[in-house]
Specification:
GO terms for molecular function: transferase activity. The chain is built from 3 helices and 12 strands; from the N terminus they run ααββββββββββββα. By secondary structure, it is of the alpha+beta class. α2 crosses α3.
């Protein structure tokens, strides 16, 4: 009976020192709020350049030509001010000798701008210049931080399964609905790849520096 009581007391004590969802939430909030903005700016990532790209949409009939659009180098805004935790983080847990916690980070509100030009939107063959603005919405990144207890954490995982954009153009190309959908799909696919290149490249380093600045919660 005494052994059983002692075992229960040990469990209570262990539980009192174990990490919680709240601890993990506070950890990620501190990373994103207190450290990421400065690390992003120190790497010159807000704003940051995005490479140029081209898209082509095939003609759908005698009233139009192949649509060809060129987008000159773009600019991504918001990596130092927009990113926030979305929902609750996972309870900190042991993975081998490391404590690990994972959270979703909202990418909503990040904005990419391009100057572009297009021809083939009608039969005249004329060229139209325009500007384009893409806003990220309903998109998350999964972030995992891991490390030995009492030592600086490292970024274990940064993944984005898909990016949703709201596309705005200051001039209409007067495309029919079918070509407009194909045009926007081609743009989204190209920009997603360029956007992820920034996230998985220089931005990952900024996030890695940031997770190392906050003590991981207990597991």
């Amino acid at each position: 009976m005494a052994i059983s009581s002692l075992f229960c007391v040990c469990l209570v004590i262990a539980g009192a020192f174990a990490g919680s969802i709240q601890d993990a939430n506070m950890y990620m909030d501190a990373v994103l709020r207190d450290h990421l903005p400065n690390n992003v700016r120190s790497l010159n990532l807000d704003p940051v350049g995005v490479p140029a790209f081209n898209v082509k949409v095939d003609s759908t009939g005698f009233t139009n030509r192949d649509l060809k659009a060129e987008f000159r180098s773009g600019t991504l805004y918001g990596l130092s001010s927009t990113l926030r935790r979305r929902g609750d983080c996972g309870v900190p847990g042991w993975q081998g000798a490391n404590v690990t916690t994972g959270c979703y980070m909202s990418l909503d509100g990040l904005r990419i701008t391009f100057d572009g030009s297009a021809k083939g939107y009608d039969m005249s063959g004329s060229k139209k210049d325009f500007s384009m603005d893409l806003v990220v919405e309903k998109t998350n990144a999964f972030v995992e931080a891991t490390g030995w207890s009492g030592r600086p954490a490292v970024l274990k995982t940064l993944t984005v399964t898909g990016v949703n954009f709201r596309i705005n153009m200051n001039k209409s190309l007067n495309l029919n609905s079918k070509r407009q959908k194909k045009f926007e799909k081609a743009i989204s696919q190209s920009v997603q790849n360029l956007f992820l290149g920034v996230l998985y490249g220089p931005f990952r380093e900024a996030l890695n520096r940031s997770v190392a600045r906050v003590a991981l919660p207990r597991a």
